[in-house]
Write a structure and sequence with these properties.
Length: 155
């Protein structure tokens, strides 16, 4: 299960597919335009348009071995809802890796979710935190933009 929000995620999916040609990638996004761009890459087996913050994802429980999202949480006012849905569709022992904006909200127009909100949502959804890294992502004007990369595992 992959969320595509920026070109980096499409590139990541492409790299994953190159390394494992048998990999079956399902992409979900609330932007029809983003899905059209992803379709051009041809790496996803399935692309689904859905507002996963407002309604349940159209998947049965415990379907996926891995979920990845990048550039998504800064667009959401309720990341806890999405984390809960991701947990629901992950198999036991599966991995979830995602980014969350970690800089000053004045430097970049987006939601910046406090660490305790993200970490609490992971715990409440049955996901343990395996790793958390702070990293530079890009420049917005002259300001460096930083993110956290979280990796969790479904208990």
């Amino acid at each position: 299960l992959t969320y595509w929000r920026e070109s980096g995620m499409k590139q990541l999916s492409q790299k994953l597919k190159e390394q494992n040609p048998l990999l079956s990638i399902t992409g979900i996004d609330f932007s029809e335009q983003m899905l059209k761009e992803c379709e051009k890459k041809g790496v996803a087996k399935t692309l689904i348009n859905s507002d996963f913050q407002r309604k349940a994802m159209p998947f049965e429980n415990e379907r996926f071995d891995l979920a990845v999202s990048a550039g998504v949480f800064e667009l959401l006012n309720r990341p806890d809802v999405v984390i809960g849905e991701i947990s629901r569709v992950l198999k036991k022992g599966a991995t979830y890796s995602f980014t969350s904006y970690a800089g000053d909200p004045k430097d970049y127009q987006c939601y910046r979710h406090e660490d305790n909100l993200i970490e609490g949502a992971l715990k409440n959804s049955g996901l343990s935190i395996k790793n958390k890294e702070f990293f530079f992502a890009f420049h917005s004007g002259k300001k460096p933009i930083h993110y956290h990369l979280y990796t969790g595992q479904k208990l």
